[in-house]
Amino acid sequence: MSRTAARARVQRGYMIGCALMIVFILFTVLVKVAGTGKAPVKVVAADGTVTPGEEISVGFSSLNIAASDALGYSGTWYKLSKYLGYVCILAGGALCLWAVWQAVSRRGIRNIDRDLSCFCLLMIAMMFFYLLFEVLKLNWRPVILKEGLEASYPSTHTLLAVCAAGGAAIFLSRLKIRRELRLIGIAALCFVGFMTVLCRLMSGVHWVTDIMGGVILGAALLQLYRTLLNEK
Q1: What per-residue confidence (pLDDT) applies to 232?
Q2: N or C: less crowded end of the chain, CB within 10 Å?
Q3: Cα torsion 109, 111, 112, 118: sign
């Protein structure tokens, strides 16, 4: 591939990433203001009994309430999503620890392999948005488990699955190891990421728009990360 073609590919990649970020911003605004309605929160007792609680305001209320009523709450799916989330954290954390080890052993963060540095930037961006929405609290979860109302938008597990598992899969695809091991690792990471999102949706602890927001934001960050990797 010529330099001109490579440069055009990188520019196109950044444009797609920025476009996805704009879509996320617009979607976030709509989630807050479009089709707002009242919905009762489900309160889950220690024995698993579900009772209706106070009403909260939610955007896209027709879609979200219909999906919430159809899915209900599932403790099994919820636990599965938690455990899969830990696997995503393990995958992302292992690569970040590898970067730390390189920085220490090679005496400087500038000596970390470029692919690892880019992955760490992806994790930092993910954490930034996580903390941002913990402060903004644009939505509340449709289910109360233990600690009262919790911020729900975008779904943290969904964002984690897309960024950590997806980012690790992209990193692994560029790693110079046996092809069979690389393919098995990529398939496993993609499966874990997909199942984390699916389990979180089926658990009923998030509105559908929380999951959608997490996917869009995660896809935007993942696209920017992938483009950064391809930049020479």
Answers
A1: 65
A2: C
A3: positive
Contact 87, 192 (CB under 8 A): yes
pLDDT tens digits for range 140-188: 999 988 777 899 999 999 999 999 999 999 999 999 889 999 999 999 9
What's the CA gap between 42 and 73, in Å, rounded? 8
For residues 19 and 21, give the distance between their C-alpha atoms in angstroms, rounded to a whole number: 5
Question: For the chain, how many helices (H) and strands (E)?
Answer: 8, 3
- Sheet containing 37-44: which strands, arranged edge to edge? 50-58, 37-44, 143-144
Which tokens sit at 216? 């869009």
SS3 label, residue 39: strand
Which residues, at least 6 apart from 133, have a Cβ–Cβ distance to it below 8 Å?
A: 151, 153, 154
Res 1: pLDDT: 61
Long-range contacts (CB closer than 8 Å, 24 or more residues apart) made by 115-122:
115/171, 115/174, 115/175, 115/229, 116/171, 118/225, 118/228, 118/229, 119/92, 119/95, 119/167, 119/168, 119/171, 119/225, 120/95, 120/96, 121/225, 121/228, 122/163, 122/167, 122/221, 122/222, 122/225
CA 212 to chain centre: 10
**Amino acid, single-letter form, for residue 222:** L
In this structure, are residues 138 and 32 in contact, taking their beta carbons and an 8 Å threshold? yes
Using one digit for the tens of pLDDT, what is the confidence trace for 3-58? 788 888 899 999 999 999 999 999 999 999 999 999 989 898 887 788 888 899 99
Sign (positive/negative) of CA torsion 55, 57, 61, 65?
negative
